[in-house]
Predict the structure of Probable membrane transporter protein.
Amino acid sequence: MSLLEALALVAIGGVAGFINVLSAGGSMLTLPLLMFLGLPPQTANGTNRVSIVLQSVTAVGGFFRAGARDIGISLRLAIPAVFGSLLGAWLALQVPDALFEAVLVAAMVIASVMMLLPQPRLDTRTLTPERLTPVVYLAMFVIGLYGGFIQVGVGVLFIAVLYRLLRIDLAQVNVFKVFIILLYTLPALAMFMLNDQVRWGYGLLLALGSMFGAWLAVRVNLGPRGAVWVKWLTIAVIVAIVVRLLLF
């Protein structure tokens, strides 16, 4: 690996970490970069998880220090996502690469429709376990399956689904999102490691930048216009992903 390639990994990692924590879609930058640097698609998919885990640790730590925490609810949401992620990672190691794009386009179209629907009336009551219906748990399993399979744009699905089903502020949705992504990415990363699909040098350089991007995104999310940032950045990411996949 040359110095220029190492710097590119850190720089793109920083941009991706900011986008991933505040919205989603950073893997749309990092996966192509890893493949451009010579990694096969499945190895790039596995190596990218190193960055996802460490940027998520940074984001969760930042939110917790700021007092934005609800471990009980987060764990309840994460459990079905973890099981889905294990199945998704296993499927990713079995299927042809061409299937990735078809799944990604379908998921982004669904998410875009959900984000562009009229804003739901927010439920300002304390989020209790009683508000987590079977539909919410099923949605977490399906999103976890998708995240374990491909990861790109998974945050869009978390934002769209939790925003609609729980009717909580988008900035609050983001706090749950990064915690769930951290927990379900760990077993997915382990599965890629067991199949020798992780290149640690690339992954850690990518993570170095993404951790800084995540730190910055936490501060934007907790700002007075955090929810606005989340909504419009998410819509922009959806458009970029769909256009990229349909036209190129």
Remarks:
- Residues 3-247 form one domain.
- The longest helix spans residues 41-65.
- The mean pLDDT is 82.
